[in-house]
Give the backbone structure.
Amino acid sequence: MKPIYLDHAASTPVDPWVLKAMLPFFTTKYGNPRSVHAMGREAHDVVEDARKRIAGILHAAPEEIIFTSGGTESVSLAIKGVAMAKGRGHLITSSIEHPAVLETCKYLETKGFSVTYIPVDRYGLVSAKAVEKAIRRDTILITIMYANNEIGTIEPIAALGRLTRARGILFHTDACQAGSLELDVRKLKVDLLTLNGSKIHAPKGVGVLYRKLGVELIPLFHGGGQEFGVRGGTVNVPGIVGMAKALELVQKNKDKENARLRQLGDYFIGKILKSIPRTTLNGHPTQRLPNNVHISFAGVDAEALLHHLSAQGIYVSMGSACSAQEIQMSPVLKAIRLPKAKGLSSLRFSLGKETRKEELEKVVKVLQMVVESLRKVAR
Ligand SMILES: Cc1ncc(COP(=O)(O)O)c(C=O)c1O
């Protein structure tokens, strides 16, 4: 049986058009953009072309686009970069950020910065009012994710952007899961925005940080002065070419594809909730990524369910992580105050552009059988 891949929030296949665009830059056009000969110029020009095209999509200037190795690096550069440039101060983030953000904030706390972690409601929404209340005179940066990677909740970034801009505080959003949403930085009023390639059908190992002109960042890597002096190191030419192509494709098709995914996702959610007893949807009912379906199957061990599905060629993710022999509920599910039993019985299904209705029908059938048998064993 052809595998049914429902883990697009973790990784996506590289689009054939993206791969085609990238290939010559591995094999024949392999110059270093810093070399002054013709092959170097060619590599330089292709990187600058990619930068321009990405800037166009973001409604930014090309000099505001910094290429990195992925989401974690962009997030780190944004948060640590601002913090190190300011030297001290207070940061605001939410309790449901990706570890790339949370661990960076925790690290900064060990270096004398203070951080407020804003709690979210039971749907995973950050309230602009709560953020406003947390602002202090020494607040240097607010960092709130655009869309959550586990439960898919979409945060009110434009509202937060208006608030932070009015208060003159820098605002970063981690948009790694939001490549198919509105990315106009003027509308969002963000000063820093992180994107990564592997979630939008570009390869792993490439990312973007949008940095508004004038925002000072201390580099994570010092080196040859590449990327406007904030990210030393030879740039990943094929990855950058792929990133630009992938972002163009995903943004060009977003209205149609998001509507298709929304319909498919709603169909899938409805089918599960109706045909499998004691199932509930986590995350926001409407303010959610169109491809995200996060379900609790009461009385079922999510890990066992995941392995049973995997054995049948159905690939999904779990909202919990193993740590020190004990299965722990993920911090995101804790933050939305999901009871532990429910959290440990939850799976994330993330749909993608190859997902078809027939596949979801098959998954529901398998789920019905496996959930029933696992519940029998647990009794
Ligand atoms: C919301 C979010 N931020 C950051 C990252 C980190 O990206 P990367 O793994 O490319 O470094 C991810 C990856 O899953 C993510 O989903």
User: Anything to note?
Assistant: The chain has a mean pLDDT of 96. Residues 254-275 form the longest helix (22 residues).
